[in-house]
Amino acid sequence: MKNLYKLLIASLLALPFYSCGKINDFLDLKPVDNGIAVENAATAKGPTFKTANAAEAALAGVYGDLRNEYFELDYFVNGDAQSDDAYAGADNPANFQIDDYNISPTNANIKRDWAYLYSTIGKANIVINNVDSVPDPLLTTDRKNEIRGEASFLRAFLYFQLVQLWGDVPLQLKEFKTFSAALLPEVYPILFPSRAPSAEVYAQIITDLETALANVKVTALNKTLITKGAANAMLAKVYATREPHDWTKVLAYCNDVIAGGYSLLPSYDQLWDNAHENSAEAIFEINYEGTSSSGNWGASMFRGLDWKKFNIPSNDLVAAFDAEKDNIRKAASIIFLNITGKWSDSHWPQTNYPFLNKYRIFTSPSPQNYIFIRLADLMLLKAEALNETGDVTGAAALVNQIRTRVSLPNTSAASQADMRLAIEKERRLELAFEGVRWYDLKRTGRAIDVINAAKGVDGVNLGYSIALYQLLWPIPQAELDKNSQLTQNPGY
């Protein structure tokens, strides 16, 4: 018991202490190895948040982490470079491993992504578990409910990243406040969590999203703020991803999104021209002001001539745009530049080298926004749900709406099997470089077939040979080394 007590104390001292800043400040806390944020033990004697401003600042800290390295860069590496849409680019060995499906448990990216996600979950837990006890009368019951709802959505969004990347993961819902021998049974699983089955994680994600749906605002001009539309959209995505898929619920939540006042922009390029931020099509969008405290440095990782960039568009994706004669979305998504004399790449000639074109303000600090969820995504997800429930005609009508905007003819798919492939193709071309392709392929069971058939220069197969176990990441070795309750994913 004495040795365990010492171990717990040492673990506590290794964890960061959480503090509240001004309401408009986004906290800049570096992630720690186990990613668990904790409240200063001194606050256990009274309310965690004594004022309305303190509670609002804590929520702002959770929102602020949407501007960290995970969401500015790794979110897109994981969703796009890990798919057939992009090559890793640049010179980072950790990214090469992800691109080549040869990920080591010591990979620096997976270590930091685990830490980033759990660090923010820790902040969300503090808000969710303590906002109701704020004594300040300036924080109304309605606002307490909104804060809890917004933080619950964000926790669900974070766990959705984790469960898709790793499968079974620790389900951390409490923060560590104080310690005594009597509290050992309660404290131990917080500091040394085991992995929860993915079904349990998905159940908690749904519970959190339902909490959000019941409590957040209907709409907001700033699309970073969580609304009912965002909660409905995420519920649709979760039910389309969790096994077994529940297409009836996917359809219902997609219908709620579509009925929520959103609309497609007239021109596809308006989504990316930076003149239509927080548009009628955007459901969840991360806003940047382009200041030292609110600048999107991630945009400079994808485009520029100063050094070789990340997420270089793949030959396979460019061929898909060309085969469809999809000139509008290709031009909006990819720009070809001359890089002669700067660097070389085995995939592309220097005179006609592609970069992402959806994130166009790449100076630093950049005011470039990121759109994480938008209406076209949910319309195509609804088409998928209709098709899976037998309404091929209804699915075609939605696909054709998306195609009409970019001046393409109606889909020719007439059977359920053909429509599945038509929707897969449409989602690829519509949502290229928005961080969804890898997860689409995984949830539809198509990842292994599609990736192993991916083609490079001159249509030559790239030679991937991924196996089922590689659809999940290895648990970071650093986490295994300090927590004996964790187990490694098979195959690693």
Describe this structure in words.
- The chain has 492 residues and is mainly alpha-helical.
- It has a domain of 224 residues: Alpha Horseshoe (Serine Threonine Protein Phosphatase 5, Tetratricopeptide repeat).
- It is built from 18 helices and eight strands.
- It has a two-stranded parallel ribbon.
- α9 runs antiparallel to α10, α10 packs antiparallel against α13 and α13 packs antiparallel against α15.
- The longest helix is centred in the N-terminal third of the chain and has 26 residues.
- The radius of gyration is 23 Å and the shape is globular.
- It starts with a helix and ends in a 10-residue tail after the last helix.
- The N terminus is likely disordered.
In short, what is this structure?
This protein is mainly alpha-helical and 492 residues long. The chain is 46% helix and 6% strand.
For the structure shown, list the relevant keywords:
single chain; 492 residues; mainly alpha; Serine Threonine Protein Phosphatase 5, Tetratricopeptide repeat; two-stranded antiparallel ribbon; 18 helices; 8 strands; disordered N terminus
The strand order across the widest sheet is: 1-2
Indicate the mean pLDDT.
Answer: 91
Order of helices and strands: HEEHHEHHHHHHHEEHHEEEHHHHHH
Q: List the total number of helices.
A: 18
Poorly predicted runs are 1-44
CATH top level of the domain at 2-216 and 474-482 is Mainly Alpha
First-to-last CA distance: 34 Å
What kind of sheet is the major sheet?
A: 2 strands, parallel
Alpha-beta classification: mainly alpha
Helix content: 40-55%
Strand residue content:
5-15%
Rg: 23 Å
Overall number of strands: 8
CATH architecture of the domain at 2-216 and 474-482: Alpha Horseshoe
What is the name of the CATH topology of the domain at 2-216 and 474-482?
Serine Threonine Protein Phosphatase 5, Tetratricopeptide repeat
Shape: globular
